[in-house]
Amino acid sequence: MGFTQRQASGKFTRDEADEFIAALQEAAEEAAADAPPDAPPPVTSRAATPKPAQRTQRDAPLEKFSDEQLAAELQRRGWVVMEP
């Protein structure tokens, strides 16, 4: 897709994001226009649902903290935390 290292980590300026979205929409419109009229709609792939991580000895110290405490610590470090 030609991303820079910064963009590959999910950091876009508003203008970069707008340009990328416009390019994706244009490509989707072109693909739809090139498809035969009786063709089924294209299948979009979804990321496979990750399997639950297996607990390791490294995770044991974290089990003494509540979900709220862990979420608060992640937020303090700049992460965005939300329920699935």
Low-confidence runs (pLDDT<50, min 5 residues)?
none
Largest sheet: none
What is the H-and-E element order? Answer: HHH
Shape: elongated
Which terms summarize this structure?
mainly alpha; 3 helices; 84 residues; 0% strand
Explain this structure to me?
42% of the residues lie in helices and 0% in strands. The protein has three helices and no strands. The longest helix is centred in the first third of the chain and has 21 residues, at 14-34. The model has no long low-confidence stretch (mean pLDDT 79). It has 84 residues and is mainly alpha-helical.
Q: Could you give a quick summary of the protein structure above?
A:
The protein is mostly helical. The chain has helices spanning 5-8, 14-34, 67-76. The longest helix has 21 residues, at 14-34.
Give me the secondary-structure topology.
Blueprint: H1 5-8, H2 14-34, H3 67-76
